[in-house]
Design goal:
single chain, 220 residues, mainly beta, Jelly Rolls
Length: 220
């Protein structure tokens, strides 16, 4: 697990983003301002109070011109320790987007709630065995007027989920293996826009530390 590095830069806002340790980070909430602390190595921490929807993440971003298999093998390393409460829903793991089609995706390794969580309103597409665990694969439709990475003209998109059946708080996440498992169930991503280590909560007051939060790509 290790511990957070010393120092760090705290960013408190309802919406902010930047770069640190060669990765893109962001914070967004529709409730009171929260805090993300970034470091000069791939790590971060976050805290929130009486949050609505709160997201803090760090990872890699692309322009959507290449599919995941054209980029290479995408892998994450993570370790986390959490405290407090995460509200009615919470996801700890990997988050990202693709365009054409517009897909919002999650790989859920842990939660403030009991695992395996169910995102609700979804279709169970099957299961996959990845990184020593079993994941439930879900797809669901969602709508919105903002907050997606596919453009302001997009108001309807799909969400893909891999939800680990037993929680873990550290390890390797073989992101490309999840993408391949989705593709085998006709859950097709478009051009990749983002893959990040994520904390998302739907309420509560709490904090989380990621002594390790890194996403890498090995070229083919």
């Amino acid at each position: 697990m290790g511990s957070l590095p010393s120092g760090g830069t705290a960013h408190t806002a309802t919406s902010t983003q930047g770069t640190a340790a060669g990765l893109d980070w962001s914070l967004w909430t529709n409730g009171p301002a929260g805090t993300i602390t970034t470091f000069t190595v791939p790590a971060f921490s976050a805290s929130w109070t009486s949050a609505g929807d709160f997201l803090a993440r760090t990872g890699l971003e692309w322009n959507g011109s290449k599919t995941y298999d054209q980029l290479g093998t995408i892998t994450a390393q993570f370790a986390e320790a959490k405290s407090g409460k995460g509200g009615g829903y919470s996801y700890i793991g990997i988050y990202g987007w693709s365009s054409s089609p517009c897909i919002e995706f999650y790989i859920v390794e842990d939660s403030y709630n009991n695992m395996p969580v169910n995102p609700g309103g979804d279709t169970l597409e099957g299961t996959a065995n990845i990184d020593g665990g079993t994941y439930n694969l879900y797809s669901r439709n969602t709508t919105g007027t903002g907050g997606n990475k596919c453009g302001s003209n997009v108001t309807n998109w799909q969400q893909f989920y891999s939800v680990r059946t037993t929680a873990r708080t550290c390890g390797q996440i073989s992101i490309t293996d999840h993408f391949n498992a989705w593709a085998a169930k006709n859950m097709t991503l478009g051009g990749l826009l983002e893959a990040s280590v994520l904390l998302e909560v739907g309420g509560g007051t709490g904090s989380i530390s990621f002594p390790t939060a890194n996403v890498t790509v090995t070229a083919m």
